[in-house]
């Protein structure tokens, strides 16, 4: 057991994280089956055509809104939520960490600030749960989800949107904004999958994002210095898996970005219907690789929850065995 094994979240947060991930994955699958209908024609067909996919996309959009509203209420009405909100707010230490990171990159500092390190040694008391980078990721995702939700509601009815703004161009601009913002988030999610699925300390999945901290012991022997990362061993499959996963992530990000420029008529599409980009075999393969990375993320999320279930079963078995031994001793 090392400090790296400490749970990150409460049970409610781990469940919310999993539900949000699954909802966002299906929003990506349905949204980009429409946007990249040339490259992802098989996905569009598999889900019943454009009409069915659009209905599913709206349904998962409603699910996203419900999750966001639920989380906002929890952040306001519960002690844990308010405490987590305070912990995630930027601090002077985060600003110092950012400045020291810049100095470190320029060669003017010998090491990174503790607020910027999560896996580079030290103890859990010295290094915060969230570095300034982690806090930035949370705020970026929150901003993207907010803007995607608002723009998604605005373009729910494209004809109604045109009537409201009186011009077709304004309506198309909202459609394109929603799609391109989704592309930005899609690229971030793909990198997030690679970062947490292929980290050498956690490969193949960061289980502490799925197992609540109440189920993971926080005590460690006093004779162990640092986080204990030096006692970990790399999985024999990590190098090849990380190289393959990294290549797929880069190819997927570049392909999705390129396809979004062609398929939406960047910066404003000529039609309200997206798609119709160039028929290019390499681009088609690249976009499908990006979708494969998303599918991998969904599989890892399911796997993480299966690990949590198995962990709970093992803990229950151990508690039952301990109680039997205690009764036998009495």
From TrEMBL:
This protein's GO CC annotations: plasma membrane
Keywords, comma-separated and alphabetical: Cell membrane, Membrane, Transmembrane, Transmembrane helix
Region forming the signal peptide: none
Compartments where located: Cell membrane
Pfam families: Ni_hydr_CYTB
UniProt superkingdom: Archaea
Keyword Hydrolase among UniProt keywords: no
Xref: SUPFAM superfamilies: Transmembrane di-heme cytochromes
Protein's UniProt keywords contain Cell membrane: yes
Residue ranges of domain Cytochrome b561 bacterial/Ni-hydrogenase in the record: 9-203
Membrane topology: Multi-pass membrane protein
Membrane spanning residue stretches: 12-35, 55-76, 137-157, 169-194, 244-262, 282-306
Protein name: Cytochrome b/b6 domain-containing protein
Natural source organism: Halolamina salina
């Amino acid at each position: 057991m090392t400090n790296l094994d400490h749970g990150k979240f409460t049970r409610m947060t781990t469940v919310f994280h999993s539900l949000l991930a699954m909802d966002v994955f299906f929003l990506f699958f349905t949204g980009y089956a429409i946007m990249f209908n040339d490259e992802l024609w098989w996905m569009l067909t598999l889900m019943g055509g454009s009409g069915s996919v659009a209905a599913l996309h709206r349904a998962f959009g409603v699910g996203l809104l419900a999750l966001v509203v639920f989380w906002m209420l929890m952040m306001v009405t519960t002690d844990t939520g308010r405490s987590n909100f305070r912990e995630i707010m930027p601090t002077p230490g985060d600003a110092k960490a950012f400045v020291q990171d810049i100095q470190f990159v320029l060669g003017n500092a010998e090491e990174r600030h503790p607020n910027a390190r999560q896996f580079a040694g030290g103890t859990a008391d010295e290094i915060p749960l969230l570095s300034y980078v982690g806090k930035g990721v949370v705020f970026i995702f929150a901003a993207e989800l907010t803007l995607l939700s608002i723009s998604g509601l605005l373009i729910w009815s494209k004809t109604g949107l045109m009537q409201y703004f009186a011009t077709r161009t304004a309506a198309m601009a909202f459609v394109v904004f929603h799609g391109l913002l989704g592309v930005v988030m899609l690229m971030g999610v793909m990198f997030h999958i690679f970062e947490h699925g292929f980290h050498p300390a956690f490969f193949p999945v960061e289980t502490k994002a799925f197992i609540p901290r109440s189920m993971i012991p926080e005590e460690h022997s006093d004779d162990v210095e640092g986080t204990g990362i030096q006692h970990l061993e790399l999985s024999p499959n990590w190098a090849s898996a990380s190289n393959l996963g990294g290549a797929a992530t880069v190819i997927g990000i570049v392909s999705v970005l390129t396809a979004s420029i062609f398929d939406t008529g960047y910066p404003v599409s000529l039609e309200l219907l997206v798609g119709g980009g160039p028929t290019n075999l390499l681009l088609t393969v690249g976009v499908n690789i990006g979708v494969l990375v998303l599918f991998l993320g969904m599989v890892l999320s399911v796997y993480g929850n299966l690990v949590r279930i198995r962990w709970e079963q093992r803990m229950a078995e151990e508690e039952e065995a301990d109680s039997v031994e205690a009764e036998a001793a009495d």
